[in-house]
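Saturday, quiet lab. Running sequence design on the structure tokens for the scaffold JK sent over.
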């Protein structure tokens, strides 16, 4: 049978999602835990691979197994075998044609910035830090130039392996909550480092180093070298993944809870 599951994890101490020979990965932790529950080797497919230091509130995976377990057993068994920085929130049987990555129709990320002169302490690794005062209104003005279906070559990592740089950016909102600035990004799919590169451009605009129209110039250049600095991974959270209703994947109303 095919099982889908939803994960939450703190990416601070992981080398990223993907299994690596000599580094700690979320994938290895999850597969080892599920293999113990199933009493057989389990290989999982993920909706979207996250980079080192990136967090997830609702990452989706699927795996095939001959083990007969109900959803509660998968969740409780996995939690008993997972490290403290990973949790399985939900699991359930799905149709054989469900695919965690290819069945997804939309993805949501939040990028959280602590905007003050002093670096973070207890939030270290959970927020990005920017000492320059940021104008969230100017950032939102720049963000408007990026919404829509575009070639996002200027916002993809040099090593990105996606076949096409075209993505549909459905929503991009910037809002301030006291010392925090949050960038909310919604698209059909993302390129490698796309959110962090968008954040880097918007932060330069917010700091007054560039005008809001610069975001449009960067987009139209289709050249990564025109896009400025890639923002750190610390403040990036995968918050939600959308699927067609037929698959009955639950959606959690999640927030980062920093304000």
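Result came back. Writing it out in full:
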């Amino acid at each position: 049978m095919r099982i889908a599951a939803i994960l939450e994890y703190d990416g601070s101490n992981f080398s990223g999602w993907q299994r690596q020979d000599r580094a700690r990965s979320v994938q290895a932790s999850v597969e080892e835990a599920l293999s113990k529950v199933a009493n057989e080797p389990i290989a999982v497919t993920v909706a979207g691979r996250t980079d080192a230091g990136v967090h997830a509130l609702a990452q989706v995976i699927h795996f095939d197994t001959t083990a007969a377990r109900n959803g509660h057993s998968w969740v409780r068994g996995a939690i008993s075998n997972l490290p403290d920085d990973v949790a399985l929130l939900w699991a359930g049987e799905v149709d054989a044609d469900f695919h965690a990555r290819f069945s997804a129709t939309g993805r949501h990320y939040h990028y959280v910035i602590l905007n003050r002169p002093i670096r973070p302490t207890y939030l270290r690794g959970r927020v990005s830090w920017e000492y320059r005062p940021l104008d969230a209104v100017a950032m939102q003005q720049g963000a408007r130039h990026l919404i829509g279906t575009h070639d996002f070559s200027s916002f993809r990592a040099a090593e990105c392996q996606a076949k096409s740089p075209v993505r549909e950016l459905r929503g991009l909102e910037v809002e301030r909550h006291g010392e925090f600035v949050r960038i909310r990004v919604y698209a059909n799919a993302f390129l490698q480092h796309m959110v962090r590169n968008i954040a880097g451009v918007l932060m330069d605009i917010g700091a007054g180093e560039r005008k809001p129209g610069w975001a449009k110039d960067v987009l139209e250049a289709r050249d990564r070298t025109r896009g400025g600095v890639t923002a750190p991974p610390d403040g990036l959270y995968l918050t939600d993944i959308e699927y067609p209703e037929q698959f009955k994947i639950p959606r959690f109303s999640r927030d980062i809870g920093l304000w």
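Notes for JK: The helical segments are 26-38, 71-81, 136-143, 194-206, 214-221. The first strand starts at residue 2 and ends at 9. Ask whether to fix the surface positions before the next round.
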